[in-house]
Amino acid sequence: MRVLITGGAGFIGRHLKAHLECSGHEVRICDVETWGQLVSVLDYEQLEPFVAWADQIYHLAASVGVRRIIENPIQTIETNVTGTENVLRCAEGKPVFIASTSEVYGKSDKVPFKETDDLQIGYKSRWAYACSKAMDEFLALAYWKEKKQPVVIGRLFNTVGPGQSGRYGMVLPNFIRQAKAGEPITVFGDGSQTRCFCYVGDVVKAIVKLMEAKPWGEIFNIGSTEEVSISTLARMVKVMSSSQSPVVNVPYSQAYECGFEDIQRRVPDISKIREAIGWQPELRLEQIIERML
Question: CB-based contacts of 293: which residues, under 8 Å, 6+ apart?
Fold first, then answer.
């Protein structure tokens, strides 16, 4: 099968490409990064022949990372919404996986998050990414409803693993880099906020299985349910790396901007994907950290 991955030069895209090629598929990527086919999803005419070549499309291209979102909200919205619309316009009946995010749950305190929950997104620039990805979901579902375009949406929770960069604020690779370098391990806020970290290999398996199962027009949470506070995560990295780095707290106003709003708990309900394709994460957090060290 011929498969196109948008954003294929990114962290998840690279792992997905390797998995699909090992399964015997022919894979092409389009990305604006420094390798592969340098094609932007914002350029419809550039994108169209790549989509025409493919039998199915994994749409991962997006503007991500809290720091990038705060600094470039216009680029975030345009890249995510226009890029997704271009992919769906080009697809013309070919199956498309749309990568969404747990960020769309916004400020909801109804934990664990379930796919049928209402979304509670704020108005500060920090929510530009969540708002744009929610629009991606609405676009995809509209294409399914009106045009019967085969789409499935995955709301990805914190995905981590080897080769991930902390450049745009990804917390675990940043902690590991700081611990190895003997630098202070910086915890933003008071560190009581919790996240669930899922191994990229497990996430890739879920994405591929969803495309094989063909549950078109549906949304699925993809993530781990192993909840950990950011302060505890920092201490785990420090101990497991035998680092002498101190763990220090940095106010959100210093890390990002005044009035920054964070999500206190981010935990998925994964019963829907478990029932649909029998998927659940295999690696626990300690095993993931060991692979990343």
Answer: 176, 180, 240, 241
Q: Which whole-number Å values give the CA distances from 212 to 13, 131, 165, 202, in the listed order?
A: 18, 29, 29, 16
* Candidate list 58, 105, 129, 199, residue with the active-site label: 129
Q: How far apart, in Å, do the first and last CA atoms of the chain sit?
A: 35
> Are 10 and 31 a contacting pair, CB within 8 Å?
yes
Q: Is 160 left (phi over 0), alpha (psi -120 to 50) or beta?
A: beta
Q: Are 150 and 214 in contact (CB under 8 A)?
A: yes
pLDDT for the residue 199: 98
The model's pLDDT over 240-285, given as tens digits with 9 standing for 90+, comes to 999 999 999 999 888 776 767 888 999 999 999 999 999 999 999 9
Q: Which of 158, 139, 116, 273 is nearest to 207 (CA)?
A: 273
* Residue 37 predicted with pLDDT over 90: no
- Is 124 within 8 Å of 69 (Cβ atoms)? no
pTM here is: 0.94
Q: Is 256 a catalytic residue?
A: no
Token pair of 229, please? 């506070």
Q: CB-based burial of residue 95 (10 Å sphere; 0-12 exposed, 13-18 middle, 19+ buried)?
A: buried
**Domain 2-157+199-223+267-281 in CATH: superfamily?**
NAD(P)-binding Rossmann-like Domain (3.40.50.720)
In the block, tokens 């649909």 appear at 276
Scanning the chain, the segments in alpha helix (DSSP H) are: 11-22, 44-53, 66-71, 73-77, 83-91, 128-147, 171-181, 200-213, 230-240, 252-255, 271-277, 285-292
- The Cα–Cα gap between 154 and 249 comes to 33
